[in-house]
Structure formats: structure tokens, C-alpha cells
Write a structure and sequence with these properties.
Blueprint: H1 7-36, H2 41-62
């Protein structure tokens, strides 16, 4: 859908779908926050590592940097 629409037209559909998904997951976000800030630092460390890796890969892909580097 994003391939055949400009960003504004894509946003008309995306915004509603995204709002519905956020509403469905609010409880999960609360639970995630509780686990993230709990005394056991293992969950926080694992989540940070996964999010950092995903962000790093996404940025490199958007910048056209070779994934193997």
C-alpha cells in the first residue's frame, strides 16, 4: 500500500490502524514498563540489546550501508 500511495494518503489508513493497535496493546505496554524497571536487570538488558540492534540495522538499511559491515 505504501508503494502506490504518497505519505499523506498512506497516513489516512495507517493512523486509524495504528491507533487501534496501540489501544489493543496498552495493557502490554504497562506490563512491559513494570518488567523493564523491576529489580531484575536481565529483562532490561535483553530488551535494550534487542532494540539497539533493531534500530542500528534499520538506520543502516535506510542509509544504504552494507548489512555485512
Amino acid at each position: 500500500m505504501a508503494r502506490v500511495n504518497d505519505e499523506a494518503n498512506f497516513g489516512e489508513v495507517f493512523d486509524e490502524v495504528f491507533a487501534n493497535k496501540v489501544e489493543e496493546r496498552v495493557g502490554l505496554i504497562t506490563d512491559l514498563g513494570k518488567r523493564y524497571f523491576a529489580l531484575d536487570k536481565g529483562f532490561r538488558s535483553s530488551l535494550n540489546r534487542s532494540a539497539r540492534r533493531a534500530a542500528w540495522r534499520m538506520i543502516r538499511r535506510e542509509e544504504g550501508v552494507d548489512e555485512a559491515a
